[in-house]
Amino acid sequence: MTRKIALGLLAAAVAIAVVAYWAFRDRREAAPGAPPPPAPPASGAAPASRPSGASGPALPTARVALYLLSPADGLLRRVECDLPRPASDEEFARRILEAEASGASGPSGPSPALASPFPPKTTVRSVFLAGNGLVVADLNVDPAWARQAGSSDELALAGAVVNGLLSNIPGSTRVQILVNGSSVETLAGHVDISRPLPALPDTVGGGSAGPTGAAGPSGGARG
Amino acid sequence: MRILAAVFSLLAIAPPSPTTVTLSSSGKATMVAAADNGAILSIADVVAGLGGSTQDLPGASVAAQIGDHRVVAADGVATVAYDNQVVTLTRPVRRFSGVLYAPWELFEKVIFPAAGITADYDRAAGRILVHPPAPRGGITSVDVAHVAGLTQVVFRGSAPIPGTLAVSGSTATVTFAPGTPVPFPERDFDDALLAKVTFSGSVATLSFRASAVSANGYALASPDRYVVEVTAGKPSPIAPAPAPASSVRTVVIDPGHGGDETGAVGPDGVAEKTVTLDIARRVAADLSASPGVHAVLTRNSDTQVALDERAAIANHEKAAVFVSIHANASRAAGARGSETYYLSLSGSDKLANALAQTENAESAPAGPSAPGSSAGDLDFILWDMAQAAHLNESAQLAESIQDELNGLLHTENRGIKQAPFRVLVGATMPAVLVETAFISNGAEEKELTQGSFQQKIADAIARAVVAFLKAHPAGPPTTAAP
Description:
- Chain A is built from four helices and five strands.
- With 223 residues, chain A is an alpha+beta fold.
- In chain A, β1 and β2 form a beta hairpin.
- In chain B, the strands form five sheets. Chain B has a seven-stranded mixed β-sheet.
């Protein structure tokens, strides 16, 4: 009888292990061919969505330059604010874009008069540093927005992503924007994002300086 | 015992552990972890098998170092960074149990070229066979570029590779010297004209998608290569206008958007595609009334035209000027006025910037670059950034148009600016994009629907274009080296 109970327990344990294995495999591998899951946060860094002050060791802060939309003219403005500075540059880059996406309305938000240049439903999937100064920013972009966006809106989004990363990530020189994990021709029918972009100083208005080290004029139009 | 039997039968249908395949290189065999029935392979294992190294990076990504080349891939992303380039895959890299797996495509497109080798994958047998680098004198790679309706097939060699081209219907053959090593037996290409390149011995067969093509082949040096230029035998989808007299110069006007691509829509429902066509027609009429100017529209109805096709039409027409007309939109309530753009170069394309700085250098020889010239390195940048050679003239044209708009309209002057507009990239002539007004602004949306306002804009653009043409007399056409 004892032997039967032992065998039964062993069988139950094995069955649980098999079921757990299947569940784990389904979660991780359901995939091939299916839309990829959002990239996980950088290892060793706090999740970007965790509000500052949440549990875990407090991060040091860093002064960053963000590019936010001016409702007055649709151009970007360069503003500075303090953000938590994770050890990982990738996580830091992600936080910069998420601060721009939120309009930097957090506790260190620079100005309520400025808005997010990210259209509604546009989110940051992942950011990674590819070496040689190339930063890759992967965005979720709302197809409905992309169908009817104007050049100004599209340039504001591209400019905020590119200028925001190049201004703050040490050694970065170009930004490749991806949409849903893939390289695409344009964000919304105008701006060529099929190749890595340098700073976009003409997306910045009001005499603000463009990203540090950016070639060409620093913001504003000529003529 | 029955319970145990049930458990064991359950185990029997459990998925097998990840498989392995064998990578054979230079007589050495390496085991490579595989998953999804061998459809995806461990990046780290393959790289190690080729003598390279990998380093895990934060964010579930990995950097592979193969010789002087660096490749970065990330979990869930179908794009990898390869040195300064970005390569798109048809399916994303995946991470299982801390290991990044990639489809064969990554290795074929990136990893093996970085290692200077080619390889075949027998998935059924679970074996990757690496071929050693082609000996000197062989064809090392085949590159394809498509610009303005022209496909260039470039056979690159480690030494001079003279060939002989023959065209027959939808195929062409290039016969190289007997015994010339070739890089692969067969490869498909995602190109508008070229479908496949097949090697049989030292003969390359090019299979085209069009039923008839015309092709021209020639060998170049520094670097050594054999170039085949291919155009479709059928006429352009946009019927070319009657050939103007030689003294007449063509201006291509591009009404933005069209068809299903409405462009921006104003608060009262006015579609950008409608007003851009109205204004473009007026510009074309104005220009056609000017002596010595012939205007062509990229579309003259509510039809969809791809961005690259618009510049291709201008190239096909051998236009002196290309003007793309748009109406702007912004979520910013205060955004209003007109602005004129010309192309901004990619900052990474330092060579293209250097080229732009030599613009209008009359002494620069046209056609194939001289041996030893650094211009040979510009090959694909030139084709990819056809507009680079016309940036100064494009800036002058933009300034001229914006000045006229400022003088005729009472809208706010937002100035001339540079941006990477896709529609301008392939244009091989001075090219600008005019944002006439903000259709997202209620007041300007109303104006954009008024004939008098549209005519003012058209007059301003036409006057600026005519002035620009007078200031830039027609010269001999220049072409870039392939």
